[in-house]
Prior knowledge:
Radius of gyration: 21 Å
Order of helices and strands: EHHEHEHEHEHEHEEHHEEHEEEHEH
Strand order of the largest sheet: 2-8-7-6-5-3-4
CATH class of the largest domain: Alpha Beta
Number of domains: 2
Distance between the termini: 26 Å
Keywords: Iron, Iron-sulfur, Metal-binding, Pyridoxal phosphate, Transferase
Number of helices: 12
Catalytic activity: (sulfur carrier)-H + L-cysteine = (sulfur carrier)-SH + L-alanine
Structural class: alpha/beta
Largest sheet: 7 strands, mixed
Shape: globular
Domain Aminotransferase class V: 4-366
Cofactor: pyridoxal 5'-phosphate
EC number: 2.8.1.7
CATH superfamily of the largest domain: Type I PLP-dependent aspartate aminotransferase-like (Major domain)
Amino acid sequence: MERIYVDHAATTPMHPAVIEKMTVTMAQYFGNPSSIHSYGREARKIVDEARLGIARSIGAMETELIFTSGGTEADNNAIFGAAEANKEKGKHIITTAIEHHAVLHACEELGKRGYEVTYLPVDETGVISVKDFQDSLRDDTILVTIMYGNNEVGTIQPIAEIGQILSSHQAVFHTDAVQAYGMEKIDVNELQVDLLSASAHKINGPKGIGFLYIKNGVKLAPRTFGGEQERKRRAGTENVPAIIGFFEAVKLMEEDRENRRNQYRLYKETLIEVLRTNDIECTINGTLETALPHVLNISFPDTNVEALLVNLDLAGIAASSGSACTAGAVEPSHVLVSMFGKESAKLTNSIRFSFGISNTVDQIKKVGGEMAKIVQRLMNK
Length: 381
């Protein structure tokens, strides 16, 4: 049985070229980049080259990029670092109700420490209101953290518009771009963001490596203490093979971004067409117009998400949902709750399909066909 992976928003398989580059790096460049001898200098050189190349991919300077262990650490460094560095100016933070838990839980923790957090609602497409944002902005707001593109439904937020509003305000502006980086062309100067998080394993790079863009002049309180790596902003010996793997993934992504975007849009259209051809009742959660090209969240009325996922897995298809299924109980996706309310049936019948470079049109047609059969079978019980 052919196995088909359509859960690329969770993680992506490493590109063969990335694996090869990392393997060579592990064998040849094992030195500590902080060492002054030749082994250290060799490692430092390739780390510096990677930092420059990755920084350029978002229009930044190499001095504005620190490497982290991934998106969660990048988000936490940005949020806690900005809050602690600016607490004398105020303790008000603005975020949204649909952020990744790396942001939501960080903000919740700051709430316990005496900060005041405003959670902006979203409409049924998953987008915040710019007016709501402006109404929430206060003189004592010190941090705004709003994700670029949502990991569950793909909705893209008006980041540039918010950046323009904040250009004359004291608040530090952070965006979690973990799901968007690689899919969307991002320029931090055009967006006017101060902080931006990204992760390698979402773009066919290795797990355990990410970056945080920190605009020159933005102050962050350090989260780790020890050495003076990353310009004293993140102590710890650099993960050289992972950094090089990240850079290789970035180069491959930049060479092929538009082709990938077009391909994933085709996959969305193909999957929807197959379902509709088979007379499957379904609705799209979010929007096709202003969404990440690789994420498609679909609601199947009168079905159950656990049954859908189990049957898909039995058919060799790996998809996911925003719900946490434990011991027969379903904890609804906080994103769908924010979009549709706590009583909506969509909370328990929605599936996320997310596409990647290993997929083909024929695979997506098969996914649609199998999904149609599963829904019809479940509906006839």
